[in-house]
């Protein structure tokens, strides 16, 4: 899937957002390393702090659908009210957990901007830090 198609999927997901408090609908589309595309949107709550962002919604949906071994190739993010819409810090950390390699957003004129994930979260903490030297990454 090309950049434009992944951004289109994210935009479509944004139209399903539940954002009655911020009026800031966001959609995310992730493509896994095995080619599955899973979308998410932000879902807010009257208890404001319980909102979930589009990116984390997409990740949790992907795990529920595909299992715990998913690896994220790329995430595309579209905010209907602002461009570019970069993933928030919490979402960057959750994307990092699943080894996200790249991020695509739209610039002000709708053109894609693609960055390596390490540009968004350099020197990051990830699951491999918790593996002991002799467990070969198994849990
Ligand atoms: N939001 C996302 O869904 N993803 C982002 O990358 C940035 C922020 C949501 C959270 C909240 O529902 C609304 O946008 C305003 O912050």
TrEMBL record:
This one is known as: Cytidine deaminase
Q: Which UniProt keywords apply?
A: Hydrolase, Metal-binding, Zinc
Asked if the keyword Zinc belongs to this entry, the reply reads yes
The entry marks the following residues as binding Zn(2+), namely 53, 88, 91
Lineage here is: Bacteria, Bacillati, Actinomycetota, Actinomycetes, Mycobacteriales
Family the UniProt entry places it in: Belongs to the cytidine and deoxycytidylate deaminase family.
Q: Which cofactor(s) does the record list? A: Zn(2+)
Q: What molecular function does GO assign, one term? A: cytidine deaminase activity
Q: Does the keyword Cytoplasm apply?
A: no
Organism, scientific name: Corynebacterium spheniscorum
